Amino acid sequence: MAKVKSPVTAAIRVLRQAGVTFGEHPYHYEEKGGTAVSARELGVDEHSVIKTLIMEDDTRAPLVVLMHGDLQVSTKELARAIGVKSVAPCTPDTANRHSGYMVGGTSPFGTRKQMPVYIEESILALPLIYINGGSRGFLVSLPPSELQRVLKPIPVKVGI
């Protein structure tokens, strides 16, 4: 099988500009496969594969939520944690417009719009995370401390 070439995305440009050392992990993307497929394809624990979710609050202000691949976000807990009435996932078209990425290839790095980034706090305790590099079928690996340095995410406890 031919080796998949790593793309150069806005996320990769941001990581390189910030001096982040990261691994590149292209894999065979499956529509609606999510983190279970990427974890299986890369041979890693799904808990260390971090999904990038684009959501909006009750005023339609967009935000990014980073969550373990094997957990869901409690939108009720997230709304309470950030002091808004409600939070809901964006439609795919809206998420694409806010992030500049296609759903399934959304990275928290190099988004089109500046958005606050919230991170499930237990992600910060992992030794290495795998997160989307800005293209479907492409993850990057890096220590969470580097993600923290570049994005300055706000830790929350909203995983279920």
UniProtKB/TrEMBL annotation:
Domain YbaK/aminoacyl-tRNA synthetase-associated as annotated: residue spans: 37-149
EC number(s) given by UniProt: 4.2.-.-
Nucleotidyltransferase as UniProt keyword: no
Domain of life: Bacteria
Gene3D superfamilies per record: YbaK/aminoacyl-tRNA synthetase-associated domain
Pfam families hit by this protein: tRNA_edit
Keywords on record: Lyase, Protein biosynthesis
Keyword set includes Hydrolase: no
Family classification: Belongs to the prolyl-tRNA editing family. YbaK/EbsC subfamily.
Matches recorded under NCBIfam families: YbaK_EbsC
Protein name, UniProt field: Cys-tRNA(Pro)/Cys-tRNA(Cys) deacylase
